[in-house]
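Please go through this chain and its backbone structure tokens and walk me through the local backbone shapes. Keep your notes short.
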Amino acid sequence: MKKIFSLILAAALLFALCACGSTQQDAGELHMATNAQFPPYEYYENESIVGIDAEIAQAIADKLGKKLVIDDMDFDTIITAVQSGKADFGMAGMTVTEDRLKNINFTDTYAKGVQAVIVPEDSDIKSVDDLSAEGADYRIGTQKGTTGDIYAEGDFGADRVDKFTTGNDAVQALLNDKISCVIIDNEPAKAYVEANEGLKILETAYTEEDYAICVAKENTQLLDDINKALKELKEDGTIDSIVSKYIK
């Protein structure tokens, strides 16, 4: 019995030490879930993830006295990662929508976004209205799980929307004549058009929206802390300075 008791006690102590060490390590880190295929908000520069969201997140982490850790993943898995606790918050040019609010909380907005339409320079599509014209059957490319994807499916029907894992995949499909256009945020759209000859952005915007940071519903303290940090960063000009660095 003494041996059994000693083994149980030793196991309990080991578990407590491991748990304590894990808690201490996690307590000093702030994990951000993102999809680093969304320039200029988040993208890779060599081995590092940089961009508007990455810099704002770092400024927030500094305010909270935490070490920022950025976890790159598919866009449509970000909310799940935050809900499950795998990440503390999600930041990826993410728009506040009623459907998302059912599963997650959002901070105050920190930036404005515009959904744009990319087409070939010689495209028959001259305006956003052409996509919904009578008899129109243009195939529309989107990044899966984004608001551009959600809105396009609602406006034009799921049978006309081709969903891609990244915006770059959608643009490559457009270049290969597999789809007629791509709906994506205006800033990444500019980067994709600049990097690929023969493409342009329609002058009319598809829709306008607000970007915010998503936090698990039960994590109200972090939500309050981030909102407080965002308020200070807006007031002292930090956010405007970061945005203007990437968007001229």
